[in-house]
Amino acid sequence: MDVLFNHLKPNLKLLKDELQVYPHQIVITLGEPVLQLLSNATDDKVRKYWDYSKGISRLAFKKCTDNNLNRPFYPFPHQPSIRKVFYGQYLNQYLEYVKIDSGI
Fold this sequence. Notes:
Elements: H1 2-6, H2 8-20, E1 28-30, H3 32-38, H4 46-49, E2 52-53, E3 56-57, E4 74-76, H5 85-102
């Protein structure tokens, strides 16, 4: 993570420039390292946005709005976490939330 944080500034500028070309497209992140780089909370966890607590969800999903991109994004787990029972159980509901919330 130190290497990623040390190169965040130029990479973040490049990413923002690229995303400006697609202002109406949704942004998703894969895995906690990327989430933690982009979120203003450097110890952020994907489970926070999936409303994960003790293996269950109240389906109170949310997007990350407090971030360095200055546009919301949707955190997804990366391998191997996506194979965990919790994420597998709620993946379709989270995808539906993303579709509805983003208007796609």
